[in-house]
Specification:
Blueprint: E1 5-7, H1 19-28, E2 31-32, E3 36-42, E4 48-54, E5 65-69, H2 79-90, E6 94-98, H3 120-132, E7 138-143, H4 145-157, E8 166-170, H5 176-182, H6 189-206, H7 216-220, H8 225-236, H9 242-249, E9 262-267, E10 288-293, E11 302-305, E12 308-311, H10 312-324, E13 339-340
Parallel strand pairs: 1-10, 5-6, 5-7, 7-8, 8-9, 9-10
Antiparallel strand pairs: 2-13, 3-4, 4-6, 11-12
Helix pairs in contact: 2-10, 8-9
Length: 344
């Protein structure tokens, strides 16, 4: 590939290359069991986020630390989250997922939510972990919305503003306006309806608390994520409208300015984004490696490996963690847990 763009080594199984099959397949397979413990982290503004730590975790205080940020309406229960956290845990890493505000078990306290450009909570978490584990090498990864947020955070903080050895961005909607357009086309509207229903249900429960010019009837009339961002996300978080939010929160414009080592994994057939996404963006800087797969869908990347369907993302991320912390590589502490039945 040209410059910092490289061809990913992902190969879908025969008959499973379709982008929608790849996108949906992780949700149709049994979900990995992963023991964990919860922690509530208080934020400077008095609100909180919920952390999910893989348990029991390594005993050595200098064990490397893997920090994961989920996608829109995701959580520890998202299939990709469990696979990535389990992969880090198997290498002897301490692994934690931060739930964005309101995405854990409890609604957040303040009359606000979260969005693709909201970097403050992740910055606070990384700072707290730097004090808690000062000797640990740390790597952060983000998926979808969390990936765009992470790229924006890395750009804002420069090469030494974060206690991170590297960042990994998976299926990042680096052009939010283009992504909103894609979600209104063809079968992709199914994903939009699913995400919108989840978002609207949360807002409906707190509509009386939110400073919005919106009632239940108006909320019910919202048909697209762009509509939602226009009347909920934007006014709730200080943006003029959806267009202003997309412009200010999209991280793609900073690709050429990233100083922290950053790996970006992306499928050219991602239904959430245009196929020419990276042609629309500035060339990545020297510290950025973009790996493009022809197939993979949105956070799909399911391959046939070791006689079964497995997550290529988990395997690729494991390889990157081994590269960044070689002294801790290859230290599995236990066999992977049995899977849960689908849909749980």
């Amino acid at each position: 590939m040209i410059g910092q763009l490289h061809r990913a080594d992902f190969a879908p199984p025969a008959g499973l290359a379709n982008r929608h099959i790849q996108t949906l397949l992780p949700r149709l397979l049994p979900r990995r069991r992963l023991p964990h413990r919860r922690e509530t982290l208080t934020l400077p503004d008095g609100d909180f986020v919920e952390l999910a730590w893989v348990a029991p975790g390594p005993e050595h205080e200098a064990a490397p630390l893997f920090i994961l940020f989920h996608g829109l309406e995701g959580s520890f229960d998202s299939p990709y989250a469990r696979e990535l956290l389990a992969a880090a845990d198997a290498l002897g890493w301490r692994a934690v997922l931060m739930h964005f505000r309101g995405c854990g078990r409890l609604p957040n306290r303040l009359p606000r939510a979260y969005h693709s450009g909201d970097t403050a909570d992740a910055y606070w978490l990384i700072g707290q972990l730097a004090h808690r584990y000062p000797r640990a090498l740390k790597v952060a990864a983000g998926v979808s919305l969390g990936a765009n947020m992470l790229v924006k955070l890395v750009a804002e903080q420069g090469g030494d503003g974060l206690d991170l050895a590297g960042a990994i961005a998976i299926s990042a909607p680096l052009d939010l306006a283009a992504s909103a357009d894609c979600l209104q086309q063809g079968f992709t509207r199914v994903y939009q309806r699913h995400l919108l229903a989840s978002l609207k249900a949360k807002v409906a429960r707190r509509l009386a608390d939110f400073p919005l010019d919106l009632d239940a009837e108006g909320l019910g009339r919202l048909r697209t994520l762009r509509d939602y961002d226009d009347v909920v996300t934007a006014p709730l978080h200080g943006f003029r409208d959806a267009a202003d939010y997309y412009r200010r929160a999209s991280a793609g414009r900073w690709l050429g300015e990233l100083e922290l080592p950053t790996l970006i994994l992306h499928a050219e057939d991602d239904p959430f984004m245009p196929p020419d996404l990276f042609d629309r963006l500035p060339p990545p800087g020297e510290s950025v490696r973009v790996e493009l797969a022809r197939h993979g869908g949105h956070v799909g990347f399911m391959e046939w490996h070791d006689g079964r369907l497995r997550s290529w993302l988990a395997r690729r991320v494991s390889r990157q963690l081994e590269d960044w912390a070689p002294t801790f590589a290859g230290r599995p502490r236990r066999l992977p847990a049995e899977s849960e039945p689908p849909g749980r």
